[in-house]
Amino acid sequence: MHLKTLTLRGFKSFASATTLHLEPGITCVVGPNGSGKSNVVDALSWVMGEQGAKTLRGGNMADVIFAGTSSRPPLGRAEVSLTIDNADGALPIEYSEVTISRTLFRNGGSEYAINGSSCRLLDIQDLLSDSGLGREMHVIVGQGRLDSVLSASPEERRGFIEEAAGVLKHRKRKEKALRK
Ligand code: ATP
Ligand code: MG
């Protein structure tokens, strides 16, 4: 399974339809500051079901819709589609290629689709969650996060590892119990 194409239409700074073709392996997106690299990553989280506006670096969800520039009026909807190569059947669906899409209208309405058939957000989350994709399963390391890991003290760095391994909450509980 690998991500094949990501199409943004009216999403953040991508007013015109823009398609990124991804190959198996590592993909790098390079460009000047403010050119929309992080917006591409936001689009990926969004189409996979992200519901937190803050995680998407906005104040509310409508902030993902192209807000206009001096030369271009704002748009009424944002749409992102992600095509996943499913030749190995990692996604539990009878298609060798799966396209999930999400649309948000400025009036607040949302639409979701799997291979062009409209569905619920839950259907997309269910489809992805069995495959290591989907909410809380893939990992997105935000900008500045690597710096904070590299410059962390040994204790802080151990904290990151414990958090990732899921033992931090047990350590906190142990510390709390010992204080009593
Ligand atoms: P850096 O290298 O500094 O991290 P970047 O390439 O990651 O930059 P982004 O954060 O992806 O840049 O893009 C920021 C740009 O996207 C800003 O110019 C901002 O105005 C624009 N932008 C964000 N949301 C919208 C929106 N809803 N409508 C129009 N433009 C937007
Ligand atoms: Mg960025």
TrEMBL record:
Residues that hold ATP according to the record: P32, N33, G34, S35, G36, K37, S38, N39
Quaternary data: Homodimer.
Subcellular location per the Swiss-Prot or TrEMBL entry: Cytoplasm
Free-text comment about domains: Contains large globular domains required for ATP hydrolysis at each terminus and a third globular domain forming a flexible hinge near the middle of the molecule. These domains are separated by coiled-coil structures.
Name of the featured protein: Chromosome partition protein Smc
Task of the protein: Required for chromosome condensation and partitioning.
Family: Belongs to the SMC family.
Residues of the full protein shown: 1 to 180 of 1191
Organism per entry: Occultella gossypii
